[in-house]
């Protein structure tokens, strides 16, 4: 079985590939910036998702020019999210995940991230990720 290092370029390519056939959700067009702090290799590790019609069409390391909103988390909390050991709502409510920017757009994205199809992609990615 192929493995990918969490938050590596290969990880994001695999996410794009696995998310390519997600169902469309017209009107859900967002650029989501993530910032992981305390990353073991770089300290601060930014990455982003471009979402068009509810599909992740681009996932890359780096900064997006005009994010709809930004989510910031520590590396350990980011790993817990990916492993399914922390629910995103818990992270937001406890302050372990911080959001800046348009929170209404985050709420618009929740049905996408909570869908069975998206969760299946995350489960598949989780199975091949190493940390």
Automatic annotation (TrEMBL):
Superkingdom of this protein's organism: Bacteria
Boundaries of every SCP2 domain copy: 42-114
UniProt-listed Pfam families: SCP2 (PF02036)
Protein name: SCP2 domain-containing protein
Lineage, broadest ranks: Bacteria, Bacillati, Actinomycetota, Actinomycetes, Micromonosporales
